Amino acid sequence: MSRRVVVIGGGLAGIAAAVRLADEGWNPIVLETRKKLGGRATSFPDHRSGQSLDNCQHVLMGCCTALLSLYDRLGVSDQIEWHESLYWQREDGGVDLLKPGMLPAPLHTARSFGRMKLLDRSGKSEIRRAMWKLLRGGHRLRQDYRGRTFGEFLSDLNQSAETIRLFWDTVIISACNLPCHQVAAEHGMQVFQEAFLPGRWAGTMGLSMVPLADLYDPAESIILEAGGALRLGCSVREICLEQKRAVGVMTADSMERGDAVISTVPPDRLAKLLRDDVRAQDRRLAHLEDFQFSPILGVHLHFAEQIMELPHLVLAGRPVHWIFNKGVDGQGRQHLHAVISAADEWMSLDEGEILERVMDEVRMALPMSEGLEPITVRAVKEKRATFSATPEIEPHRPGAGPGAIGVKGGDVESLFIAGDWCDTGWPATMEGAVRSGYRAAGAFAGTDPGIEEVPAGWLAHRLGVDR
């Protein structure tokens, strides 16, 4: 009896689906166009610096339970470094520290927040008022604002333009890759209700200590030991159907058959793998061209000497959103990584223009950089880094299995869909990608996807943040 399942794509959704299928006794056949795993969350060899560089700095948090479970299964959890404190760079050159204290959540950051000089008394009062609304409204509040933006929610609470610029947009652009006035309200709310408010662990930030691609190396042995296969550099041309049932895929060389097909590629790529008449049979496939994308720019900078001591800086209200300290090598050279999310205005710039703008921000934040120039630079543009999680697209995000979009009839059997753009309950994140992969594998195998949530602390729960 065949136990084969074809998985299209080797990003996080594909890895998660394949590993879960392997653990359930199936033979996952993973087909990935690139020569490496990881999709958009991966690394590449850089000849300028001689290092393996991440496409962009990817961040996880304690609330990312599915991603953490995948890292546990891959045996790489010890490669994640955790940071409880966030360092906020002010425009006057000072740095504010936001860190948890001894009080129970949601009061765990109240003391350090009160000491922040980033915001005046009025701005802090506005934020406290909005946080109280998010806390007491819980998940019900997300339902109330379905079809609206997070910016509309902030407007309803009379948040000033300056408070939005310095605080709300700083957080939301980094988390959702869209500003407050564009992102769906439910996702803006989710960032605070699931990361900032419920408990100190939920909002703890994790960073990989190794190139991202190294985290995925153990996946190959898991797949192979289950009788599956990992085929890198293999491009899928079409999903094959027989009597409205997905039975495999056509590659450049041959047909790869399976009991089911799990697609983990982006919506525009999936659209090209299916004939129009096939798409007409499945409501999940009706709006693939409606998805829009938001870019991210990552800029790697290597300096001949150390100019930054803190592990990171959040640049509040600035064109560059983060500067990460990637360490100092044995020769005393320091590697910094600047990140610009929702980087539409940067995509037309060449590397020289990008460097000029980024260095203006580096010099503002790091006085020790004055008069210095990086010895190597690598700007990485991800023009289609994430789908745009706007209110308009939310109703069209498909579920994992046939009939899983809330409509009935005409579904293609044995075709399962995953990817961060699917209906995961999350915006475009690594966590959303892994959840979708687990759900697709579970929908096929008839098993529970096994996704657990971080429980809210006793006080946060009593106040209603998770209800």
Task: Describe the model.
The chain is an alpha/beta fold and 467 residues long. It has three domains: 4-41 and 211-290 and 392-445, FAD/NAD(P)-binding domain, CATH 3.50.50.60; 85-203, no CATH class; 293-387, Polyamine Oxidase, Chain A, domain 2, CATH 3.90.660. 31% of the residues lie in helices and 23% in strands. The protein contains 14 helices and 20 strands. The chain has helices spanning 12-23, 65-74, 110-115, 121-144, 150-156, 161-176, 185-196, 212-215, 217-225, 267-272, 276-279, 351-365, 430-445, 458-463, and strands spanning 4-8, 27-32, 43-46, 51-54, 59-61, 80-83, 86-89, 95-98, 205-208, 229-232, 236-241, 246-251, 255-257, 260-263, 293-303, 312-315, 322-328, 334-341, 376-387, 415-417. The strands form five sheets. It has a seven-stranded mixed β-sheet. A five-stranded parallel β-sheet has the order 10-2-1-14-20, covered by helices on one side. A hairpin with a 3-residue loop joins strand 12 and strand 13.
Relative strand content: 15-25%
Summing up helix and strand content along with how strands pair, one would put the structural category as alpha/beta
Count of domains = 3
CATH architecture verdict of the largest domain: 3-Layer(bba) Sandwich
